[in-house]
């Protein structure tokens, strides 16, 4: 387990935590009451900043329950938090429901943060790429 130093930009937000022992994402909460009309989006603060270890990044994912029950998602999912960023983590939420308004009260869980190692690569231009079974087949080329 790695240490994840964090600060509170809002003294009342809870410590980021996992809801269950083996969960992948730390819960992030909103720092204000929010209401999103159908199709509306908003940038919402979480009240925390983190210091990711070198070679890691944080990825802000939607909460599956909010997505399934209310159509609430993260617009740029997953949002990327780079290791050098020290500001407040904010989440760009979107209400995809066509009819229902969605509301959350201050302190409610709105997203989750997954911390992962990041591999840096050196882009090298070549004349052609090696062949593969899939080749150049794109979206939908494997069925479904």
Secondary structure: elements and pairs:
Layout: E1 6-8, E2 26-29, E3 34-36, E4 41-45, E5 48-50, E6 56-62, H1 64-70, E7 72-74, E8 79-81, E9 90-95, E10 102-104, E11 109-117
Antiparallel strand pairs: 1-5, 2-11, 3-10, 4-9, 6-8, 6-11, 7-9
Question: What can you tell me about this protein's structure?
Answer:
This protein has 144 residues and is mainly beta. It has one domain (6-117): Deoxyuridine triphosphatase (dUTPase) (Deoxyuridine 5'-Triphosphate Nucleotidohydrolase, Chain A). Helices cover 5% and strands 34% of the residues. It has one helix at 64-70; strands at residues 6-8, 26-29, 34-36, 41-45, 48-50, 56-62, 72-74, 79-81, 90-95, 102-104, 109-117. A four-stranded antiparallel beta sheet has the order 2-11-6-8. Strands 4-9-7 form a three-stranded antiparallel beta sheet. A two-stranded antiparallel ribbon has the order 1-5. The longest helix has 7 residues, at 64-70. The radius of gyration is 18 Å and the shape is globular. It starts with 5 loop residues before the first strand and ends in a 27-residue tail after the last strand. It holds the Pfam family dUTPase. InterPro entries: dUTPase, dUTPase-like, dUTPase-like_sf, dUTPase_trimeric. Its EC number is 3.6.1.23. It comes from Propioniferax innocua.
- The secondary-structure class comes to mainly beta
Shape: globular
Give the biggest sheet: 4 strands, antiparallel
Counting H and I runs of at least 4 residues, what is the number of helices? 1
Keywords: Hydrolase, Magnesium, Metal-binding, Nucleotide metabolism
GO molecular function: dUTP diphosphatase activity; magnesium ion binding
InterPro entries: dUTPase (IPR008181), dUTPase-like (IPR029054), dUTPase-like_sf (IPR036157), dUTPase_trimeric (IPR033704)
Family: Belongs to the dUTPase family.
């Amino acid at each position: 387990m790695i240490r994840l130093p964090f600060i509170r930009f809002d003294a009342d937000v809870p410590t980021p935590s996992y809801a269950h022992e083996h969960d992948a994402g730390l819960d992030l909460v909103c720092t204000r009451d929010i209401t999103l009309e159908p199709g509306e989006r908003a940038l919402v603060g979480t009240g925390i900043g983190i210091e990711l270890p070198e070679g890691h990044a944080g990825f802000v994912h939607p909460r599956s329950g909010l997505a399934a029950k209310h159509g609430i998602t993260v617009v740029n999912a997953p949002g990327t938090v780079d290791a050098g960023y020290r500001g407040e983590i904010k989440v760009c939420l979107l209400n995809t429901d066509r009819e229902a308004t969605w509301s959350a009260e201050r302190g409610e869980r709105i997203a989750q943060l997954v911390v992962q190692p990041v591999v840096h690569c050196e882009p090298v231009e070549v004349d052609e790429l090696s062949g593969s079974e899939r080749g150049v087949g794109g979206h939908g080329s494997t069925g479904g």
